[in-house]
Write a structure and sequence with these properties.
Length: 67
């Protein structure tokens, strides 16, 4: 499997992870004030997931440009 194909597979997984984290934060916001102590941890998980996704997208773009 090429690096580009491998990266595309990883992007799908990261995208699903980021979307799930976003939905977790959304669900948590609907339950406030219950669970308010977990908001920062869930928000950090969302931020980390999207940062990883953005980094991999940039890596894929660079690989595709070099090909």
């Amino acid at each position: 499997m090429s690096d580009i194909e491998s990266l595309k597979g990883e992007l799908k997984k990261l995208s699903a992870k980021a979307m799930q984290a976003k939905m977790d934060l959304h669900d948590l916001s609907e339950e406030l004030p219950a669970g308010v102590e977990t908001v920062m941890a869930v928000a950090q998980r969302v931020r980390d997931a999207y940062a990883a996704l953005d980094a991999r997208r940039a890596e894929l773009k660079a690989l595709e440009a070099a090909a």
